[in-house]
Amino acid sequence: MSSRAKSSPTSRLKLFSKHLNSPSPTSTSTFLEKPFLELNTPFSTERSAHWEDEQGKIIRKSKFQEKIEEKTKEEATQTEQEQSERKQSAKMSKQAPHAALMIPGPIEFDDAVLESMSHYSESHVGQPFVNTFGEVLSNLRKLFQTTDPSAQPFILSGSGTLGWDQVAANLIEPGEEALVLHTGYFADSFADCLETYGAKATQIKAPIGDRPQLDEVEKALKEKKYKLVTVTHVDTSTGVLSELKALSELVHRVSPETLVIVDGVCSVGGEEIKFDEWGLDVVLTASQKAIGVPAGLSILMVSGRAIEVFKNRKTRPTSYFGSWKNWLPIMQNYEAKKASYFATPSPQLIHALHTSLNQILSKPLDQRFSDHKAASDKIKKAVSDLGLKQLATKRENQANTMTAIYLPDGVSPPDVLPSLMKKGIIFAGGLHKEIASKYIRFGHMGVSVTDSQRKDITKGIDALKESLSEVGYKA
């Protein structure tokens, strides 16, 4: 057995996070003015039935976990009901039978989208692919609801995080100020990214489950000139939904030169966004969430105003791969269906995005947003009926693409996640470092919401009820 196979999850996490360690007091390294942010990602519990301490020793199992394991031993074979559900699932999809992935992304994918991934190999500068890429860029304008010809969609190979880098590298220069509105883990990371590129990030932090209030934002904008303000539309760590329209109106009124930057990784395709009407400057997202495409694409919509800010930089962009100096002409050429090259895109992912966007735009966007809200309302009612609370207590703060649920006192994610998986449902553990052991996350977007044949939402609710009952919780 290889040393890799013998290593524990904890040891692997330590290896992964070595690069985040601060320099020692005697270190000669001077390029860091302050230590990196600590790793703010608790070890995944979706596939682990236990936790380990810093020495790699298994933490004593709770009585709830012991009950689950006793029940598991009694269930040596699948029940007839489980076998029937798997057969039904196989009929509904060409995919191999699998547990429904109900986390806040990646999500379940439509068969046609996955089939697009198997497109034969083709040249990334050949006309057939260029035509497909051009149609995808045009369709993104429809998804973001913009008709402004000066606005520009971008698609780069990478994750949603690459969107942060593009903003930091192209729209703000070293020493300039950024105002970051904090609703969870991802604001900390966006601020860290901005500071990595030399910007000065000021955060307005709300209590867990809430969002910064407009009067706080107005006060901050009047005290200092900010090059841009960032907001996470749906923070995946807390399930908090930020209000964009009123925020953008405030920024344009109080500080009209400040750019409005939206992290829409967990919202685009599931939450309403009106790019032109709301006066947004950048909305960044990723392929694997409500857009419904496998991970690997960083997607942005950028306003004409932001493009002008980029063109008027005093210094060069601080990234090479992410520089719009390199990508802007490529995107413009692709959209005009002209072959162009800077770096190789992912043709198969572009084909998958082409299929997904065609599906999304085949129906009115209002209906799609309404479907996501209806599914969200159903889940949130079920959570309330179970006597449980959400991290976001106010309905206006609750996302329609996911729900972050506090577990009952004395119950932690490892007590219920393995049981949920046995029932064919995968939820996510907590992500916010201050309360990670107290809650779980239920993702509900894309085909799990819009495909009437799928029963993922109902199955997820029922599995949650049963798993809580198994650990002794009574609503």
Automatic annotation (TrEMBL):
Task: Cite the record's Polar residues compositional bias ranges.
Answer: 1-11, 19-31
According to the entry, what is the taxonomic lineage of the organism? Eukaryota, Fungi, Dikarya, Ascomycota, Pezizomycotina
Documented EC number(s): 2.6.1.44
Which Gene3D superfamilies does its entry note?
A: Aspartate Aminotransferase, domain 1 (3.90.1150.10), Type I PLP-dependent aspartate aminotransferase-like (Major domain) (3.40.640.10)
Entry keyword Transferase = yes
Q: Spell out the Basic and acidic residues composition-biased ranges.
A: 47-76
Q: What is the main EC category here?
A: transferase
Provenance organism: Lophiotrema nucula
GO cellular component, alphabetical, reads: peroxisome
| Database matches in PROSITE patterns | AA_TRANSFER_CLASS_5
Q: What is this protein called?
A: alanine--glyoxylate transaminase
- Outline the segment boundaries, as ranges, of region: Disordered: 1-97
